[in-house]
Write a structure and sequence with these properties.
Layout: H1 2-21, E1 35-41, E2 66-70, H2 78-91, E3 96-101, H3 108-125, E4 130-133, H4 143-151, E5 158-163, H5 172-181, E6 185-188, H6 195-204, E7 209-214, H7 221-236, E8 241-245, H8 252-263
Parallel strand pairs: 1-2, 1-3, 3-4, 5-6, 5-7, 7-8
Helix pairs in contact: 1-8, 2-3
Length: 265
């Protein structure tokens, strides 16, 4: 995840440089009126991208202040990670902290766990710095364009959008809406309908090639398990070609989405 944070720092630095070029020479930006950005996600259980245990790598003093934190698999709770980063931001003259949850689903983590951790952090910090909890990444309508590009890499006369799923009532509606926009059916790792069910239904309806897009941000233990499951499904349905796409992954397009989310506040 630190790789993603570094790309965001580069993008923000470039943006700030362009902004400075438009400022009159006798006017300087107020250093204490800026803000800082914190990305938070679930802990990654396989092939981590960097600071996946809630460690803050202090950016260069000249770089925009961007940090990473995790809800799970960290040595300290999320609210303590937020407080540490907020104190770093305060020392740099920031008065606001924007926290963008890197989650695709409106599940328990997004709707309950993270808001609670943010409230604990804000109580600890008082009025020294204000935390703005931004909408989770999956709420951005522009995400569909990114997924459309992912689909273009797969061959299939039928499509399945495979998501983790959530036990929270109504949590699947968001994924279902995205799948509809992509001309796909939704399936889930943790709830129904499962990948097995959707492949069976599409096969019975005459599909010969099924494209399956893993609706996950990064590769990890679950995506590894999905790939293994697909081998078993393929043996069950040898008459159908199953093509599994990769998760979204770190890219400039993902940075675009994050930048868009940050600008919403």
């Amino acid at each position: 995840m630190e790789q993603l944070a570094e790309l965001l720092r580069i993008r923000l630095a470039s943006q700030e440089a362009r902004a400075r070029q438009t400022i009159s020479p006798n006017i300087s930006p107020q250093s204490n009126s800026g803000d800082s950005d914190l990305l938070t996600a679930n802990g990654l259980s396989s092939q981590p991208l960097g600071a996946t245990r809630g460690e803050f790598n202090s950016p260069r003093s000249s770089a925009p202040l961007v940090g990473t934190a995790t809800l799970e698999l960290a040595d300290i709770p999320l609210h303590e990670q937020i407080v540490r980063f907020a104190q770093l931001a305060k020392g740099a003259g920031c008065k606001e902290l924007k926290l963008l949850p890197l989650f695709l689903l409106r599940g328990v983590h997004v709707m309950e766990d993270i808001p609670w951790q943010v409230s604990l952090a804000q109580q600890n910090l008082g009025s020294e710095i204000v935390i703005h909890l931004l909408p989770h990444l999956g709420a951005n309508p522009a995400l569909v364009r990114l997924l459309t590009n992912q689909w273009a890499k797969l061959e299939g006369d039928a499509k399945i959008l495979l998501s983790h799923g959530t036990s929270r009532p109504g949590g699947q509606e968001e994924t279902g809406a995205v799948a509809n926009q992509l001309g796909a059916v939704a399936s889930y790792w943790s709830v129904q309908p499962s990948l097995w069910e959707q492949v069976s239904i599409l096969t019975e309806s005459g599909a010969k090639r099924i494209a399956i897009l893993a609706y996950f941000l990064f590769e990890g233990g679950i995506t590894d398990a999905i790939a293994q499951m697909l081998l078993e499904i393929q043996q069950k349905f040898p008459q159908v070609q199953l093509n599994l796409g990769k998760p979204i992954g770190v890219s400039e397009a993902l940075v675009d989405l994050i930048m868009d989310g940050i600008r919403q506040q």
